[in-house]
Predict the 3D structure of the following.
Amino acid sequence: MTEPRPFPAQALALPGPYLLFLGDTVEPGYAKTAFGLRDWAPERCLGEFAIDGATVSTGLPSMTPAEARAAGARALVIGVANAGGFIPQAWQAALVQAMEAGLDIVSGMHMRLRDIAAVRDAADRLGRRLVDIRQPPPGIPVGSGRKRSGQRVLTVGTDCALGKKYTALALARAFKARGLDADFRATGQTGILIAGGGMPLDAVVADFAAGAAELLSPDADAAHWDVIEGQGSLFHPAYAGVSLALLHGSQPDVIVVCHQPGRCGMLGHPGYALPSIEDAIEMTLALGRRTNPGIRCGGVSLNTSRLDATDAAALLASESARLGCVVADPIRGGAAFERLVDACLA
């Protein structure tokens, strides 16, 4: 079988294992990088480190940088993905402390580590690496809209940080378990850290974002599947542009709509209500037909982490009956998730 053309960027060579830095975060949705690494790359995560004010925890052992270094850690990974991707001044002393303990710093923030004088000076003085993940490769073209060979699934959502990455990772793993040729294609900093490469789509100049999505998922064998990590939401007042560029550039044959029951307001913008699942399906298909007229919805992924097993199973069944499509929680797995895999591949 023909292998897909490799993504035109060097694979990341990151120093690990990691100590996950949570800063002073109080919103679990903003700690998605830490949670993603804990759940999908646990062998690389030794513990967590936070500063005063933090209320979020991954459940990993709490360690100082010195303790983590003694346990074998080689890097502090900023496990936060806040609105705007900035590094507050309140974090700088902790980052310097980590470097003084012998750790390199890995960041997926928009703010560049070397643009922070205290961090840059400490790294130069101590000989530590500063690694910024959100670095698009050079030479990204404008999107062409050309239909590419191969097959593609894109996860989309009613909001940010509610399961698009987890759903894509679970689907890619399930496809491979069935013997299919499949790749997970990362589009955000957490996915890139997990996969070891990808395209930081929200760091690409807007005119080139659709072209970046095309590069990420190139021509492939007709039987090959790319499972593409979604970003933001077409309904989000801040991030809809990224979501639309990804939709047009990835040209998905199948979408899976992700939603978290019980969430009412947009993350970071509580004055904006979430759309219904039906509206998300309708809008995504209407806009996606611009570059792939054959686009279809494979089903719905619900993040039922706030529910017990009995209530989650009942909700999945009732929503499937109400919407007339497969509804599953990929993290819970089971028969519902196998039906979602079937529907995507149908």
Observations:
- The chain has two domains: 18-132, 151-345.
